[in-house]
Amino acid sequence: MSTWLRNNRLPALAALAFTLVTVSVALVFFYAPLDADGLNQKIFYFHVAIALTAYACFAWGGWKALRVLWKRDEDADLESYVAIHQGVIFGALTLVTGSIWARYRWGHWWEWHEDQLVLFLVLFLFYAAYFMLRFSVPAGPRRANLSAVYALFGVALVPVSILAIRLSERFIHPVAFDKGGPNMAGSQFFTFCVSLAAMLTLAATLYHVELAGKRIDVRLRELREALQ
Amino acid sequence: MSAEEKYVAAAYLVIFAVVLAYVVIIALKLQRLERELTELTELARTKQEERRAVAVG
Amino acid sequence: MTYLADVGALARKDLLLEFRARDTLPAMLLFVLSTLVVFHFVLPGDSSELAAKGLLWVAIVFTALLGLSRAFAAEREQGVIDGLVLAPSDRSAIWLGKALSVLAFLVLAELVALPAFALFFGGVDGPMIAGVALADVGIAAVGTLLAAMAAASRARELLLPLLFLPLAIPIIVGGVGTSVTSDPARYVGFLALYDALFAIICWASFEYVVTE
Fold it and tell me: What residues pair up with A38 in beta bridges, in sequence order?
């Protein structure tokens, strides 16, 4: 059993992601109790899970970036790039689901006082510039270094931005809004944990799939050069 | 469906759609990779035959 | 000791070049004045004084971008960046020297901008000046490193604002906070924190930005 697992890591991961996502969706709709806010929670389970997964992707990208600079690990540049790509996808999803939730809860498609939404907007802009940077530098160790330094700036930017956004509310929104984040009962917390696990495994699966695709790209290019 | 349920459904649909879009993109990529691989295999085969021709000739 | 001497030499070189060429600094001064005049026309009649103070920071950031886009222009045009990098000094000295000269440009620009702002819109006080000073340090530090990155790319002038603006958002928040709230000390502290954190990161990572 364990040799099969070792040889088929990616399909196994994908199967795990599939199971967790199915289970968590089932839990959200059939198990977790409604709270005072009504259906508000149902979006929230996945919205927060997706947000945390995006953070995890950026953190993983930052870790790989550190390895590029510190250990001169060549593979790490591609891994960092793919991780950040996943982070941007999940970040965009966070913004979209957050916007839907804001529309549901407050009636507008955007709310500046929702710290998390604003933070993700800033991070999205930052990491979108990451791709612009990568596309305008020819491939090679220089691009790897620049991308890695920029990715690490992103990691530093997260806590600073959180602080900045909170500080900005004092002069932008003097009236304090209630955050509307759920205080969760036990069964709700369990559902949330399963959704989080589901999103993380989904991100991991997509990460490995994309990485495999890109590595094959590289090897085919080498093969082509060797043949010509 | 009540208005609330519509929003919840919309959120889940968006997530679903993004993942499926990803699958489509990967499928396209696999197709391209397969095409490239066939091209390169052909290239390798012709090189092999050239080498054999040279060796014999 | 030679580290500081290198830094000083690099900064002095940039300032001398600008003093002789006199292109970047006058452009920055004129730009910031023009922007302030534009703001007069942009603000509706019943806008609060606070709105104008907020807009000052827009002027500061975009004037800084103007100056930063020229930061490595001379080196690039003369093909000198490789020479600097190959020099036996610590690469981070390049960053520090360049950042100090950028800071000097920014301060000179502010020396014109702030009196002009006081004249047009009124209300420049101590905390605001402290905010501007600290913000300039942050802009110089981060902007110099990002300018070096942009210089290495094909898209240069297009890329620098994209890289710079997300990182400038905390600076703007800190700066606006010092100008418009009744609690400026908190924002001054925040700006100092930003400056310290990012100066260290820039200093440590500049080596990787200019080498392979």
Answer: A35
Interface of B with A in 1-57 (CB under 8 A): 4-5, 7-8, 10-12, 14-15, 18-19, 22, 26, 29-30, 33, 36-37, 40, 43-44, 47
C120, C111 contact by CB (below 8 A): no
Residue (of C157, C91, C155) closest to A143 by Cα position: C155
Alpha helices in chain A (DSSP H): 2-7, 9-26, 40-70, 74-106, 115-135, 141-172, 186-227
Report helix, strand or coil for A38.
strand
Segments in chain C forming alpha helices (H): 2-21, 24-42, 49-69, 73-78, 81-86, 91-120, 126-151, 156-180, 184-210
The stretch B6-10 carries a mean pLDDT of 80
Q: Considering only CA atoms, which of C190, C192, C32, C17 is closest in space to residue C120?
A: C32
Contact status, residue A198 vs residue A7, Cβ threshold 8 Å: no
Q: Report how far residue A214's alpha carbon sits from residue A11's, in angstroms, rounded to the nearest whole number.
A: 18
Nearest CB among A42, A216, A227 relative to B47 is that of A227
* Neighbouring residues of A187: CB distance < 8 A, sequence distance ≥ 6: A31, A32, A33
Structure pTM?
0.86
Residue A177 pLDDT: 43
**Of the partner residues B10, B36, B47, the one whose CB lies closest to the CB of residue A100:** B10
Q: Which residue has the tokens 């950042």?
A: C99
- How many domains, chain A? 1
Token pair, residue A92, equals 């965009």
Q: Which of C157, C120, C135 is nearest to C34 (CA)?
A: C120
Domain range holding A119?
A: 2-227
ipTM exceeding the 0.95 mark = no
CA–CA separation, A153 vs B31, rounded Å? 37
Q: Which of B1, B2, B12 to mutate to test the interface with A (most CBs of A within 10 A)?
A: B12
So where are chain B's domains? 25-57
pLDDT, tens digit, 9 for 90 and up, residues A188-227: 788 888 999 999 999 999 999 999 999 998 888 888 888 8
Distance set, CA A1 to CA A20, A149, A219 (Å):
21, 42, 31
